[in-house]
Amino acid sequence: MAAASFRVAQDDQGRRHVQLLGQWSLREPSNDFAKLKQALQPFFADTFTKWDLQEIEQLDAAGAATLLSGWDNKLEGNVSLRPEHAALFNTLIGLKRLPAKKTEHDRLAPFITIGKGVLHLVHHFTEFFRLLISLLLEITYLFRRPQDFPWREFSANVYKSGVNALPVTALLGFMVGVVMGYLMSKQLHAFGADVYIVNILGLSIIRELGPVLMAVLVAGRSGSAMTAQIGVMRVTDEIDALTTMGISRILRVVLPKVLGLTFVAPLLVLWTSGWTLAGGAFASNIELGISFRFFFDYLPLVVQPINLTLSLIKGLMFGFVVALVACHFGLRIKPNTESLSNSTTSSVVTAISGVILVNAWFAIMTRGIGV
Amino acid sequence: MSENLIQNTPQESIPDQDIICDIQNVCTEFGDNIVHHNLNLKVRRGDITALVGRSGCGKTTLLRHIIGLTKPQSGNVLLFGENLHAMERVAQRRLMDRFGVLFQQGALFSALSVFDNIAFPLRELKQFDESVIYQLVMHKLALVELDPRDADLLPAEISGGMVKRVGLARALALEPELLVLDEPTAGLDPDRSHNFIDLVKQLKKSLGLTVLFVTHDMDTLASLAERVAVLEDKHIIADCPLRELAKIDHPFIINFFQSIRSRLEKL
Question: Where are the alpha helices (DSSP H) in A60-108?
């Protein structure tokens, strides 16, 4: 076993003879064909060079293809070969070349891209509404046959996306509350309006920040998990297996996720808002010396209770949107890794955008209430 | 009683350079479940060796030890005389290029086309330019008897038999010495599995490969294997040419040989 090498000699007419030696094969681990090709480049360029491959120990397709690329993909009279190697070279030369793909420039290309994008979007919307309608149909079916309600999956989803989310929502809510409380106390203190910290924090957290913060966290944590789970179930044909057992995939897979998250989201909103308020109270206690007792006694007086109702309704809507978007993208996953990652990303991005849109719409609808 | 007899049969001595894979005293356990206990096996150069045994007896685990995916709790697995797990990184990679693996489901990269799947190991070497890679990929496609027009398809768009062929082409891309096949004919109809076996045999001859495979399919075993290693009760209880199984007196092997005898006679 010897690495691939070559020897150069010159005959009396000044023509160079290149003799190839050793193993011209990938099996010899010390070969580097890139270096060999570079070293042979001057001889490839000179058409008068004689090539002698008789002494080669072993030649494989990789070695042969490297040499052929130097010889312009043809064998000429200046190469002397052993017959078994000639066969390999001829096979390689004889391989069909696929017709190169047409890369004609199309002036209409931008319009086609836009058109395709619009159609894609329309397709998404129709699919989304189809999912929504079939979900509603399944719910009406459940009114007729309540014993078919998937309680186990429902409670599993409540646990996974609700109970397991408690630590992270509490921690992040508290942190955001501390930061907001700190910054606002600085500003309010400059005007001597210390006590208004309760009004500002109370209204903004209960009405806006708590629900939105919860929705963003849940979209990132449970929404992505739902999409990926449904996607993998599709890849491994589990969804088809369910269907063949006569079990509706909407009823067993989508419905428990959507209802579970819709059910648990308002509770998560309460939990997140509570911790965010605690963070705010903590910061105002340190910065402004407002006692916790005063903060929470004064809160119901300045923030109307209707705001709490609004925030719970928001929680319901956000949970529904996040879960439905996650299921929609999950069901669209094609059986390959690229599609899985794309859909999971789109699911989270769309869910968060959807939540913010719904939030804006809801803010306009309820602009006269509770402020 | 008979078991001891077989284990004590002295191994014929084989020159070292003819042993491609040497498994020495391997023990594997998952929790309380002992899968291999002081298991020994040698794979010779140029042979087509089948690894057989009951379902769940640890064949695939042993295969995963051999190709370096897992490490046994104790004992050594030597590939080409070297231990994959006790090597410096570059040398380890070089060693791993010397064998090709065809997984049961093909394990093609689903985001890459057939062409890119086969080109992947070649590109990773960083020794060839695209025109050479193109030629080599087309050559491998021709070797496994696939149409060059299939090169642009994605793995999701081709049939199970084609996935196996593409997987084989990818395994052969770096001209390996050892080809490892996990259930090479699982999921193929009899006709296709027959063709696939012929293809592997023919490639083995033309490329000078050593083949090691795991199978449950008796037809595949009878028509492809030259040697057979039987894994039973945590040990290799027999490692011999297929027909010599008849001479071994062990309940599992007697049972097992009966089911392949008629197939061997047909050949």
Answer: 61-70, 83-94
Sheet containing strand B33-44, strands side by side: B33-44, B19-30, B74-79, B82-83
How do the domains of chain A map onto residue ranges?
Answer: 5-94, 152-365
- The C-alpha atoms of residue A324 and residue A318 are separated, in whole angstroms, by 10
Quote the radius of gyration of chain B (alpha carbons, Å). 19
pLDDT at A47 exceeding the cut of 80 = no
- Residue B22 has φ and ψ, to the nearest 5°, of -130, 115
Selected for mutation to probe chain A from B113, B116, B135, B144 (highest A CB count within 10 Å) is B135
- Strands B82-83 and B74-79, by their bridges, are antiparallel
Instruction: Please tell me which of A197-206, A329-338, B116-125 the model is most confident about, judged by mean pLDDT.
Output: A197-206
**Predicted pLDDT of residue A213:** 95
Determine, for residues A65 and B110 on separate chains, whether the beta-carbon distance falls below 8 Å. no
CATH 3.30.750.24 assigned to A5-94: yes
Cα dihedral: B80, B84, B89, B95 (round 10): 30
Alpha carbons B242 and B226: distance in angstroms, whole number: 6
Whether B149 and A29 lie within 8 Å, measured CB to CB: no
User: What token pair was written down for A182?
Assistant: 């700190």
- pLDDT score for A66: 84
Mutate to test the interface with B, among A58, A69, A232 (most CBs of B within 10 A): A69
Say how many C-beta atoms besides its own lie within 10 A of residue B140's C-beta. 23
ipTM of this complex > 0.90?
no
Q: What percent of chain B has pLDDT over 70?
A: 93
Who has greater pLDDT, A352 or B38?
A352
pLDDT digits (tens, 9 = 90+) for A126-184: 999 999 999 999 999 999 989 889 999 999 999 999 999 999 999 999 999 999 999 99
Q: Which residue has the higher pLDDT, A294 or B83?
A: A294
pLDDT in tens, B92-101: 888 888 888 8
Contact criterion met (CB < 8 Å) for A69 and B129? yes
What does the angle CA A329 – CA A334 – CA A101 come to, to the nearest 5 degrees?
125
Q: SS3 for B36?
A: strand
How many residue pairs from chains A and B have C-beta atoms closer than 8 A?
Answer: 71
Q: Does B127 touch chain A (CB under 8 A)?
A: yes
Angstroms from A230 CA to nearest CA on chain B: 18
CA distance B156 to chain A (A): 7
Please give the average per-residue pLDDT across B35-46, as a whole number: 86
* Residue A132 Cα, gap to closest chain B Cα (Å): 29
Query: Is residue B228 within 8 Å of residue B221, measured between CB atoms?
Result: yes
Q: Which residue has the higher pLDDT, A64 or B11?
A: A64
Rounded to two decimals, the pTM is 0.73
Handedness of CA A56, A62, A64, A67 (dihedral sign): negative
Q: How far does A329 lie from chain B, in Å, by closest CA?
A: 18
Torsion angle defined by CA atoms of residues B63, B66, B69 and B73, in that order, rounded to the nearest 10 degrees: 100
Select the residue from B136, B146, B205, B210 to test the A interface by mutation, using most A Cβ atoms within 10 A. Answer: B136
Residues of chain B with Cβ-Cβ distance to A26 below 8 Å are 97, 125, 174-175
